[in-house]
Design a protein that fits this description.
The chain has 3 helices and 6 strands. With 135 residues, the protein is of the alpha+beta class.
C-alpha cells in the first residue's frame, strides 16, 4: 500500500467508525445522541447532578433532553468557564452515579471547554466536535 492508498483510506473512514477510548482496549461506535447500554440511564431527572470529566468537575446539569436518539445534557459550568452552558451528548456519558448524584463523562475538562458555543441551537456543530474527540 503506497502513501496515496493510505490517504484514500483515511479519508474514507467515517466519523462513526469504531474508535478507542483512553484506557479501553475494545473498540466501540460512538453514537453522540444515544446513551451507552452500560450507562443504565433510566430517564430519571438528572437536573442538579454534578458533572465530572476524567480530570475534574465541570459543573451541574441544568437540563436534560431524553428524546430517543437525541439525548444530551445542558451543563452550567458556573465560574469555571465564566458561566458558559455547554451541551454534552448522551454518548459521552460514561456512568451515572444516582446515589451520589454525579454524571461522569469520558472527556477531559479541556475537551468540554473547547466545545462549540452554539449549544442547543447548533447541535450539528456539537455532533461534529464530539465525534472528532473520539478519533
Amino acid at each position: 500500500m503506497d502513501e496515496h492508498d493510505i490517504q484514500e483510506t483515511i479519508e474514507a473512514v467515517p466519523a462513526a467508525m469504531p474508535g478507542f477510548l483512553p484506557g479501553v482496549t475494545t473498540p466501540f461506535a460512538f453514537e453522540p445522541w444515544r446513551y451507552r447500554q452500560n450507562v443504565g440511564h433510566n430517564a430519571s431527572d438528572l437536573h442538579g447532578f454534578h458533572v465530572e470529566a476524567t480530570d475534574g468537575q465541570i459543573g451541574k446539569v441544568e437540563s436534560v433532553n431524553d428524546t430517543q436518539g437525541a439525548g444530551y445534557l445542558v451543563v452550567d459550568t458556573g465560574p469555571w468557564i465564566f458561566g458558559r452552558k455547554v451541551v454534552i451528548p448522551a454518548g459521552a456519558i460514561d456512568n451515572i452515579g444516582y446515589e451520589e448524584q454525579v454524571v461522569y463523562v469520558d472527556r477531559t475538562r479541556d475537551q468540554v471547554k473547547s466545545s462549540p458555543e452554539g449549544g442547543v441551537d447548533d447541535l450539528e456543530s456539537v455532533d461534529q466536535y464530539y465525534r472528532s474527540t473520539y478519533q
